[in-house]
Amino acid sequence: QVQLAESGGGLVQAGGSLRLSCTPSGRSFNYAMGWFRQAPGKEREFVGAIRWSAGSTDYADSVKGRFTISRDYTKNAVYLQMISLKPEDTAVYYCAAQTAFYRDLRREGEYSVWGQGTQVTVSS
């Protein structure tokens, strides 16, 4: 069974940093991988994504300049480096994988495989 496992979440003070990891098991993902988040009482929203082969990235305006997505070919893993965290970044963060080329990076429906999520809490 194909799975994505997120790790690295936790509690951090405003202005702090965290790095989330997403590691697949069962197969490799070679198209695009994205990060989404869902805060309490809100809909899940796009955070950022990376196209695996080209390495090109896209970010939501709310995190641009603070969050960086990178990939590790050897581990087939994707990372979300978050700096200058704000209380409004508090959410459950999910990684997701696309299983075809040239899909819209920002649309949830274009992602076929999802992780269970990891909680990020930023205290003020």
Task: Report what the structure shows.
The strands form 2 sheets. Strands 2, 4, 5, 6, 9, 10 and 11 form a 7-stranded mixed β-sheet that branches. The chain has a 4-stranded antiparallel β-sheet with strand order 1-3-8-7, with no helix packed on it. It is globular. It contains no helices and 11 strands. It has strands at residues 3-7, 10-13, 18-25, 32-38, 45-51, 57-59, 67-72, 77-82, 91-97, 113-114, 118-123. By secondary structure, it is mainly beta. The N and C termini lie far apart (40 Å).
Structural class: mainly beta
Distance between the termini: 40 Å
Number of DSSP strands?
Answer: 11
Basic shape: globular
Total count of helical runs of at least 4 residues = 0
Give the SSE layout.
Elements: E1 3-7, E2 10-13, E3 18-25, E4 32-38, E5 45-51, E6 57-59, E7 67-72, E8 77-82, E9 91-97, E10 113-114, E11 118-123
Parallel strand pairs: 2-11
Antiparallel strand pairs: 1-3, 3-8, 4-5, 4-9, 5-6, 7-8, 9-10, 9-11
Compact description:
With 124 residues, this protein is mainly beta. The protein has strands spanning 3-7, 10-13, 18-25, 32-38, 45-51, 57-59, 67-72, 77-82, 91-97, 113-114, 118-123.
Keywords:
124 residues; mainly beta; seven-stranded mixed β-sheet; four-stranded antiparallel β-sheet; 49% strand; globular
